[in-house]
Amino acid sequence: MKTQRFGDISVQKVLDGVENFKAVVAFPNINLEVFEEHKNWIEPFYNFTTETIRISMHSYVISTPEINILVDTCIGNDKNRVGNGPIYKANADVLSHWNLRDSAYLKNLSDIRIHPEEIDYVMCTHLHADHVGWNTKLDNGRWVPTFPNAKYLFSPVELANITKEANNPYDQYVKLMYEDSILPVIQSGQSVLIDNSLDLGKGINLLPTPGHSPGHYCIEIESAKRKGILTGDILHNPIQVNYPELSTMFCADKIKSNEQRIKLVDDLTDTETIILAAHFGGSTAGKIISSKDSREFFLI
After folding, report:
1. Among 233, 206, 186, CA closest to 55
2. How many CA atoms lie within 13 A of 208 on its CB side?
3. Where are the alpha helices (DSSP H) in 11-121?
4. CA 77 to centroid of chain Cα atoms
5. What is the pTM (predicted TM-score) of this model?
6. 171 — phi, psi (to 5°)?
7. For the chain, which residues make up each domain, given as ranges?
8. 4-299 classified as CATH 3.60.15.10
9. What is the pLDDT confidence band of residue 170, given thresholds at 50, 70 and 90?
């Protein structure tokens, strides 16, 4: 993705990895014929041979003249993600790929001339395992915050929910993620709960969008008459701009998730707002445009 600029605010992408997921696994209620209907533009995001969606795991770095904000920290390295219990067993084909990874994420961060010490805020749109992994790194056998000078922004609703789930004796998977990627940040004193007093500067706004998870957030950017939105996991694949009623296997509240997605897609269609989704691959950034009775995600 080329750097997106909104006046004196810039957004850059940092890749952690790309995976292919079976579309029928990601979207349990999907009819694969919908991809054929939109073959003229969906191909960068869907493999017709393997019937898989391409899922990119990446962060965004929002830079203003004053601060650097890292949004979503992907899967991370060296994390034990095998686990036990119903969450892991139901999603083993997906989650096993995330076990003990060794990605070039920190090199990719340095390639855009940003170093961990220069991150002022880490903002997780939500606290799923593929959005918190690089919160921490392994250092001499201990999990320590990857970004030593950053404040880590957590939704209080999201944190309360994940803390409760981590104490569920029937599912070790969430406990593993909590203990290696969230708890060390709390123990270091770097965690900050989002409230109405939080000010990330002119042109950056946090938008509560619960549904995919209880405390999910989007991030809006507006400067110099240009708008953008980091949509987190409201959208997983561009096919959802035509079928926003499609929830993923990972959506906690499918009804509320659908409501958020339908509203978002309707609000953004045929506007100049740049969409920066958490899992769209390739050049990533784009707009929703309509034609006749259809919509298209148009890469820019």
Report:
1. 233
2. 12
3. 23-26, 33-37, 39-42, 86-90, 92-95, 105-111
4. 17
5. 0.95
6. -145, 100
7. 4-299
8. yes
9. confident
